[in-house]
Amino acid sequence: MSSDVIHTAWCEILTDRIANNLSLALSLLPEHAEFCAVLKADAYGHGIAEVAAIVCEHRIKTVGITSNAEARLVREAGFEGTILRLRTATPSEIAGAVADRVQEQVSSLYTAEVIDSLTEHSEGVHLAINAGGMSRDGLELNERDGHDTCQRIVDLLGDRIVGICTHHPSGSEQDLQLSDQHFRSDLNWIFSNTALKREQVNVHAGSSLSLISSTPIETDFYRCGAILYGILKPELGFEHTMQLKAQITNITTYPQGSTIGYDRTTTLTRDSRVANIALGYANGFRRNYFGRSHVLIRGQLVPVLGKVSMNTIVADVTDIPVVEVEDEVVIFGHQGTGKIDIKRIEMQADTIMADIYAEWGQRNPRVYI
Ligand SMILES: *Cc1c(COP(=O)(O)O)cnc(C)c1O
Known about the structure:
It is an enzyme of class 5 (isomerase). By secondary structure, this protein is α/β, with parallel strands linked by helices. It folds into two domains: 15-230, Alanine racemase (TIM Barrel), CATH 3.20.20; 242-340, Lyase, Ornithine Decarboxylase, Chain A, domain 1, CATH 2.40.37.10. It has helices spanning 15-27, 40-44, 48-57, 68-76, 91-96, 109-117, 146-157, 173-193, 208-211, 342-349, 353-363; strands at 9-13, 34-38, 62-65, 82-85, 102-106, 125-128, 161-165, 202-206, 221-224, 242-254, 259-260, 266-267, 272-277, 294-297, 300-305, 313-316, 328-335, 338-340, 366-368. Helix 1 crosses helix 3 (48-57) and helix 3 (48-57) crosses helix 4 (68-76). The chain is elongated and about 80 Å long. The mean pLDDT is 97. The structure holds pyridoxal-5'-phosphate (PLP). Residues 38, 40, 86, 167, 207-209, 223-226 line the site of pyridoxal-5'-phosphate. Pyridoxal-5'-phosphate binds at residues 38, 40, 86, 167, 207-209, 223-226.
């Protein structure tokens, strides 16, 4: 994005905070456990090239991605370590990722054969197990042919298998204990019934939620995304890493009784000064925020009125003594002593922060601070 373009809606990426969150996360690692920085979804909306640069500075050895485009950007950022794909790839994807040295997940004979048939494929692969009940793409050992399939995959790929992984579906202590037990028993079966040896593979299952939980789990490294972006545990010092902002483009006074926005859902109960703000649902200020959202202007929390338009919203600024066109409006983040925090925005959006970050980051120009 050329720097002489004026933006009236943008998201700020707080790179120092990503670096801080990463350092904090590393300090939470149990002894001997390693860290895999998860950079999928364009680094949760933060821009994968920029976050990969931070990851390189911290000498992180493994990153997690999903698409080939992400793998390429990580290599272009100068990352020399292991790139792990966090889902099963299609045959074309696998072939297309050889040059970027992506380690693939294998959970079926089909994928194992695809990899075996690619003579130029020399990276290690990871056997993905459905231990915790995600049932996305992990191999289910307890299914009728599960054990047989597992043995055949190991027979075919042998010591090209460098990892065995699963993904736990819940961070609640009880649920995590159960899926960890399940994973351990699957691992026991694999090490007793195939040629794979515990000391020859990395076992990995942890994510941000298990890193901050008190349940000890079987994992050689933690694949963490959320925690890098300050989504969890503010009490430990993790801070949000993106702020969504826009500018006021116009200020008008309308008389009591005026209706606001599409379908006239809102009627002014007093003469009101309203500010028109340069973002709408196209920027990820979702239509379902209607009736329950506030923004910060001059450090003050003010209500958004009426249905959300594609590129604008309207806020009631009657109670702010001085407001001007080009004033900065904070949709998420801090302004003066005011703040709209993760809890508040998650309630407003009725979803989780990772979902919101990913959307904002893709729908707005990113400004790196
Ligand atoms: C997204 C993902 C992670 C990271 O999860 P966070 O909760 O964001 O830390 C880890 N492992 C897999 C397989 C994933 O898909």
